Amino acid sequence: MRLHSTLSYVLALASVTFISVAFSAPEARADFRVCNSTQNLVGVAIGYRAKSGWVTEGWWQINGSSCKTLIEGPLASRYYYVYAEDSESGGRWDGKVNMCVAENEFKINGVNDCFARGFQRTGFQEYDTGEQSSWMVQLTDDAPSGNATVTGTNHQ
After folding, report:
1. pLDDT tens digits, one per residue of 37-53
2. Which domains can be identified in the chain, with CATH numbers?
3. What's the whole-model pTM score?
4. CA dihedral of residues 59, 134, 55, 103 (deg, nearest 10)
């Protein structure tokens, strides 16, 4: 009888542990994410200031109605810059801060002399994350004249 009681106790404890783990709140993630609310595939590039200086990276391909993490972990800078292109409609999410990009996948150090170094130059939209550890940019297609708008939100 004692073995049966011990076994029942162990099974009950295991059940409680499983339920606690299965239903606990997901761990908060710190990162920089871009969500594509359009129905089209979008190519995204990001710019930021690293210890070594300015860096631009791209291209992340984000399907319609989905999100991608561009920077994993807590954000190290206050300002981030995003440029995106809609692969089907040709719409752009751009801004006034010029940075370098390349035709294919890239990671470029520096934002000056883009053409002389064999890159293209385009305007990125600036996001002040307010030194939050996590941030999300939402790409939408509800702007006039077919161009898309970008909205940034604190994503905790």
Report:
1. 999 999 999 999 999 99
2. 29-154 (2.60.40.2890)
3. 0.74
4. 10
- Asked if residues 59 and 109 have their Cβ atoms less than 8 Å apart, the reply is no
> Within a 10 A sphere around the Cβ of 50, how many other Cβ atoms?
10
The pLDDT tens digits of the residues spanning 67-79 come to 999 999 988 889 9
Nearest by Cα to 85 from 128, 121, 40: 40
Q: Which of 68, 48, 43 is nearest to 137 (CA)?
A: 68
- Tokens 């939100």 belong to residue: 153
Amino acid at site 146: G
Return the SS3 of 145. helix
100 class by beta-carbon count within 10 Å (0-12 exposed, 13-18 middle, 19+ buried)? buried
Are 97 and 122 in contact, with CB atoms under 8 Å apart?
no
Distance CA 122, CA 83 (A): 8
**Order of all β-strands in the sheet with 135-140:** 66-72, 31-36, 135-140, 149-154
The pLDDT-based confidence of 28 (bands split at 50, 70, 90) is low
Query: Which residue would you say has higher pLDDT here, 108 or 7?
Result: 108
